[in-house]
Input
Amino acid sequence: MRRILRRAGLGPTLGALLLGTFFLLALVGPMLAPYAPEAQSLDHLLEGPSRAHLLGTDENGCDLLSQLLYGARLAAAVSLGVVALCMAIGTAIGTLAGYVGGWVDEAIMRFVDVLLAFPGILLNLAIVALVPKAGTGVFVFALVVNGWVGYARLARGQVLEVREREFVVAARALGVPPLRVMLRHIAPNILAPLVVQATFAFAGVILVEASLSFLGIGRLRPYSWGALLAQGTTYVWRTQHLAMVPGLAIALVVLGCNLLGDGLRDRLDPKRART
Amino acid sequence: MLKRAALAVVAALRSPWLRRRVISSLVAVLGVTVLVFLLVHLIPGDPIDGLLGERADPADKAEMRACMDLDQPLLTQFGRFWKGVADGTLGTTCPDRTRTVASLIGEALPSTMALAAAGMVVALLLALPLGVVAALRPRSPLDAAATAVSLAGISMPAMWLGPLLLSIFYVQLRWAPGPADDAGLRALVLPAIMLGTHLMAMLARMTRSSLLEVMGEDYVRTARAKGLSPTRVVLRHGLRNALVPVITVAGLQFGSLLAGAVVTEKVFARAGLGTLLLEAIARRDYRIVQGCTLVIAVSYVTVNLLVDLAYGAADPRIRLGGSR
Output
């Protein structure tokens, strides 16, 4: 443990621990949950922590701990899905733009500019709000629509640099087909900064979900972390724990992403490392 | 100084870099408008049902449909939308045709702009001292504390912070005015803190790393060797140069403050562009949705362009340095 701490530093280790706990809870949480997330016990409304309900109950008498555990799985699944899709699409498009160049590059980058010319969350909000009966699929789609852009920019920049390296030139000179050059020789060499970006983006997905739930738009499930927080804040005048618990849970996961992301950046991407 | 700045701007205006930059901004705004138009019109479901309810009188529905141009082909609707942009009205509201969308936005915009500006002020006022303190004593307890504050600011969801601030400073301590109170500038304080905290944390981290980098430069060592006082070295030589990227990022983030205002306005029950947009989305009033998004996109792109221009004027390497 001490060796890991010394090698990785306190921040990244803490970040990895936080995220590790989160994923572990997402995996086994529903098995540990004492109640079903939507099971109501009507004689325990808005109660603080007790032996029967370790984190208290909400206004419907649902057990907050159980909701939080089920919500962790949902948050992990949705965020991983969004980040994986964005990264795959963005990397593919960015690599194509950087490798092919010319008008393809120009067209793609102008399109990227259009998507960047707009605060991302408003686009997410508009899509989720305007689609009737938006579910998890629409939510993921709305976040992917502009989420891939950052990866595309990053990947393109990386490709422009790697493209001129000797091993790529050699591969091309040997007659390796372009697709194979991109997949075998370029992609593995541009992944590091993309992984760093993905770590930060994971936190972003959770925050956007929380914002949209708060605005009453596209609530994924009654027990999604955003929905729990939004519901909790409406009772903030009467009882603090309902907002405090999901708020803290979100903050800890986001903190974990930031700490781990900083650490990964320092390690994988020495040029952009903080001084 | 002023003359030099003016000369730099004139030089920048002549450069192909600037022309390219302006054109790409225009393309971006155009693209956003097309995107929003398509988004709004391609989504399934009848907006009239959303506006009037499914059981509304068919005559009212037809009247509404005509008012919103929804009985026209898509291309005609798009043309009329641009006509509204060109004459500055952004179209009339429906069913009340005497009001224009632009006038509604005009009423909402000042409040949102004030909020975003106040959020920016809060962010800068807190971020700069935090970053400087952290950078001057790297790896000290003070640095650790400043870093902890900025990490907390980045991690804390804004819609949690807002109600928390309200419950502490309004409900318990009675120091700040509540959501519905009409208290002028004082009513801006808590919303500005809620909106500005995330940016504050980002900028504090940037100030720290930027200042640390600059303090290692040769000209700082020279200034020290000349025997200047440490404060003078930091303020005159260090901070001045370290701030360039920080201010740039702050400028570029102004747009995200406008977007963040949607949530802040909801928490503090403030009127503004975000509230207008949310209400329009809930009612499916497409014309207002289009108008609001266009205004936000234009301000976003304009601010980005201005920041780039200022940066180009300050740093000749950018405006002379090739196409991008």
Observations:
- Chain A touches chain B at residues 110-111, 113-122, 125-127, 129-132, 203, 207, 210-211, 214-215, 217, 229-230, 233, 236-237, 240, 243, 247, 250-252, 254-255, 258-259, 274-275 (CB under 8 Å).
- Chain A has a mean pLDDT of 86.
- Chain A has one domain: 53-273.
